[in-house]
Amino acid sequence: MLYETDKYYIPNKYRAVVLPIVWREEFNIQVQDMVLVGRKENALIISAECIFKSNCSKAVKVGKKGVVKIPKELDEQLESDYYKLFVDPQNRCFHILSVA
Questions:
Q1: Could you tell me the residue ranges of all domains in the chain?
Q2: The pTM is what?
Q3: Which one of 16, 42, 61, 86 has the largest count of C-beta atoms within 10 Å of its C-beta?
Q4: Can you name the CATH fold of 3-98?
């Protein structure tokens, strides 16, 4: 089951998303930790562990206040204009899914 957050992502704009602190603590993700950002179909998945198979995934560092910069090559592959951050507690990861 996915839980909706109040965080949005607009491709080709800022290329960053803030991971909510409550869920970062639950998944044991700290500032300066490395997480994987990968594309699966028309969605992005952010995870501290390799839980998905993707040809294009990149390791990125979690910045201050839980900011994760989305790699440009992944951002450019997104097809929609408007995305929202969801939490997947079962797989301990975040999904950025199209809402448009």
A1: 3-98
A2: 0.90
A3: 86
A4: Chemotaxis protein chec (3.40.1550)
